[in-house]
Write a structure and sequence with these properties.
dolichyl-phosphate-mannose-protein mannosyltransferase activity, Serine Threonine Protein Phosphatase 5, Tetratricopeptide repeat, two-stranded antiparallel ribbon, 63% helix, mainly alpha
């Protein structure tokens, strides 16, 4: 049932010791919405927020999850916990020139705990924690919105009162079901935003808890102010935006606790009015609390700066093209256009994309571009809201609009490009916190409409419809985040000009073995962005495998010309040149790759193959040894060393290398097979047999394993077993080289033995 009445739980004058906004109108008076007890309101919000994103619980690791989780060594037990404090979000050293300087050690710590409890990279546990976090945050929003919309008031017993239960429930529901939050909840790396939001809200609630009221006036607890600062620091250690809560606490203190009229204060400051003390700025405790917040924030930022170093993050033009524009006008226009797109995503979250870079949003270079209208609309609305927030005669209206704008704008400032360059154009995850401000403004707008509307129930039904549509949109978007294929393909219709979207679709197809379709998308990525070296590299790799070597060479040569330090492209170019039998050029390409990436085991492995083709055996062995030093589990390099030593008659050395390799990689059946061959030639038949059988147990369908075990039995004199394994080998691969001839020799020998026996 929809109610339009005063809060049934609101305290009367006898219950409250003092009202901070005693003469202000109650927002709930005009809101046609459900009235539920606090406990039930929180249960409803938790349930609905869970339903929105529940279908993401069994999704895969997608997009940035690979780099932040699967390839992040900081998650593994062998990495010291202390390293987390000196590495960025992706596991790179903060001092590295390639680091993005995203310092989020507490988020990485939760990933590590997830990994340890799950016993590996199983995404279900990661997704479940994200869903629980969003549900918890949505529940906390009920309390936060009750303060922001209804004011901060306490009973005689010191219990905080909810003076806007209907409005706070509506705002919390709007937050819980907003589709723009899907990236944070369904994408595992979004946990940084979720943890940041959790401690952000706890810091705000802690700051509110610092205030108690009595008949003499306001008192406050320094302890809770300091707790709020600490929680703000924890929020920042989860994600950079967390530090902004200290500024918002100061704004809340000035507007709600001290009821400062900003316009009046500005006027008195400008005219140096002697009655400035009456404006509330110098009221008891305010300056002290602001000083605590400022000192805490400055200390936190200084420590972070010391850990991070002075170097700025390394971003490229494709990440954020507007920030690389030479013209200040072009930068300003495009930054403002990005702001309008973020605002639109809050208002109409229908077109969502996992990545908005790489040409998805072409630069505005002239005032004749029709998209200028979006900027005008944004600033028209903002200026209108700011004027109302400053100039309205209604103090209640001023307070809510200022808080709404504060929560909308201040948490967004780190992503605004105003203070430093960011590595994205638009990112849905960064408006998780600013959406709090949107929900405040929406709810207040709804209350104003309800006040004017004659048929309030129709308006309430319309809002219910919006909530229902958002729930369905969240469920749909969550399902798209379940797998990379669905996620990447969903972006094709939203950002068809985004080269990275086509690149990711192509990469996903290539990983699944569909090379023909992958080529189409890689070509489109290169067409959209002719300097997209990663697309050129991957396309060149596929063409190399399809033996289209000349086109592959052209693409890889262009890639290293555009980005001379692209080590992977240099290595792949070397592989192509090796296949074209241009050995000197291939060797030069390999060494160039190693020059740009000192620790490059795969490149040493390919260099070893080149030297082996040129019969430079010592150089080949040295290259493969370098590969295994850099990557001890490099099975191919170990195998090639064993085989080369075996083929050149160095059986003792081959055996020593084989045993060393198996100590490091004890379950690698290919190493067992190679060492078994060496032991067989050394007439260590029993040990060789055991290794062959172990290799066959691990890979029973390898024809060569059965064939070589048969040869061992043949030499050893176990002819019946030799016959059995020859037959198994021929059944698995009738064309196995040498096996048929050996089998025929064995059969003739068995026939001769039978004749002699007869």
């Amino acid at each position: 049932q929809i109610f339009n009445q005063h809060n049934a739980e609101a305290p009367n004058l006898e219950q409250a010791s003092h009202r901070m906004a005693q003469m202000e109108p109650n927002l709930d008076h005009d809101v046609s919405w459900f009235l539920l007890p606090s406990y039930w309101a929180k249960m409803v919000v938790a349930l609905i927020s869970f339903l929105c994103f529940a279908n993401s619980y069994d999704g895969d690791f997608v997009f940035d999850d690979s780099e932040a989780i699967i390839n992040n060594k900081d998650l593994r037990a062998e990495t010291p916990l202390g390293d987390l404090w000196y590495h960025d979000f992706w596991g790179s050293k903060l001092s590295s020139n390639t680091s993005h300087k995203s310092y989020r050690p507490l988020t990485v710590l939760t990933f590590r705990i997830n990994y340890l409890f799950a016993g590996g990279f199983y995404p279900v546990g990661f997704h479940v924690i994200n869903i629980i976090l969003h549900c918890t945050i949505s529940v906390l929003m009920v309390d936060v919105f009750s303060i922001l919309l209804g004011g901060l008031q306490f009973s005689n017993k010191g219990r905080r009162l909810n003076l806007a239960p209907k409005s706070s429930l509506l705002a919390a529901l709007l937050f819980a079901v907003h589709p723009v939050h899907t990236e944070c909840v369904a994408g595992i790396v979004g946990r940084a935003d979720l943890l940041c939001a959790l401690f952000f809200l706890l810091s705000f609630l802690g700051y509110c808890k610092a205030f108690r009221e009595n008949k003499e006036g306001h008192t406050f607890s320094v302890f809770w102010v300091l707790v709020s600062v600490v929680l703000g620091a924890i929020a920042m250690l989860c994600k950079e935006q967390g530090i902004t809560i200290l500024g918002l606490n100061a704004v809340f203190d000035a507007l709600v606790i001290n009821k400062i009229n900003l316009l009046e204060l500005i006027r008195k400051l400008l005219y140096k009015d002697k009655s400035l003390e009456g404006a509330g700025l110098l009221r008891k405790g305010l300056l002290f609390r602001i000083t605590l917040l400022m000192c805490g924030g400055a200390g936190i930022l200084y420590i972070r700066w010391r850990i991070m170093g002075t170097g700025p993050p390394a971003f490229t033009e494709v990440d954020n093209p507007a920030s690389f524009a030479d013209s200040l006008f072009v930068r300003a226009i495009n930054y403002n256009y990005y702001y309008s797109l973020n605002a639109w995503l809050l208002l109409c979250p229908w077109w969502l994309c996992f990545d908005w870079s790489m040409g998805c949003i072409p630069l505005i270079k002239s005032v004749s571009d029709w998209r200028i209208i979006a900027l005008a609309a944004l600033w028209f609305c903002l200026i209108g809201l700011i004027c109302q927030a400053l100039c309205s005669e209604d103090s209640h209206k001023r307070r809510i609009l200022t808080l709404g704008l504060g929560f909308l704008i201040i948490p967004f400032l780190p992503a605004s490009n105003l203070f430093f360059r960011v590595g994205f154009v638009v990112a849905e995850r960064v408006i998780y916190l600013p959406s709090i401000g949107y929900c405040i403004l929406f709810t207040y707008g709804f209350s104003l409409l309800s006040k004017q509307a004659k048929k309030k129930k129709i308006l309430a039904v319309a809002v219910l419809g919006i909530l229902l549509i958002n729930v369905m949109r969240c469920a749909l978007r969550s399902s798209q985040w379940r797998s990379e294929e669905q996620l990447f393909r969903s972006a094709l219709s939203v950002c068809p000009l985004n080269a990275k979207v086509h690149y990711n679709v192509g990469k996903n197809l290539a990983d699944k073995g569909n090379q023909s379709a992958a080529i189409k998308y890689y070509r489109e990525a290169v067409r959209l962005n002719p300097k997209y070296v990663h697309a050129m590299n991957n396309l060149g790799n596929i063409l190399k495998e399809r033996n289209e070597l000349h086109e592959a060479e052209e693409l890889l040569s262009l890639a290293v010309q555009i980005q001379p330090d692209f080590a992977a492209a240099w290595m792949n170019l070397g592989i192509v040149q090796n296949s074209l039998r241009r050995f000197e050029e291939a060797e030069q390409s390999y060494w160039t790759a190693i020059k740009h990436r000192k620790k490059y085991p795969d490149c040493y492995y390919n260099l070893g193959r080149l030297y082996a083709d040129l019969n430079r055996h010592i150089d080949a062995l040295n290259a493969w040894r370098n590969a295994t030093v850099l990557k001890p589990e490099h099975s191919l390099a170990w195998n090639n060393m064993i085989i080369l030593l075996d083929n050149t008659g160095n059986l003792a050395q081959a055996e020593a290398v084989g045993r060393e390799a198996l100590e490091l990689i004890p379950n690698d059946h290919s190493l067992m097979f190679s060492l078994a061959n060496v032991l067989g030639k050394s007439q260590k038949y029993k040990e060789s047999e055991a290794l062959f059988l172990k290799a066959i147990k691990a890979n029973p369908n390898a024809a060569s394993y059965h064939g070589n075990l048969a040869v061992l039995y043949h030499r050893w004199g176990n002819l019946d077993l030799a016959k059995k394994h020859y037959e198994v080998s021929l059944k698995l691969d009738p064309m196995a080289p040498g096996t048929k001839e050996n089998y025929n020799l064995l059969r003739r020998k068995l026939e001769q033995l039978q004749k002699k026996g007869g």
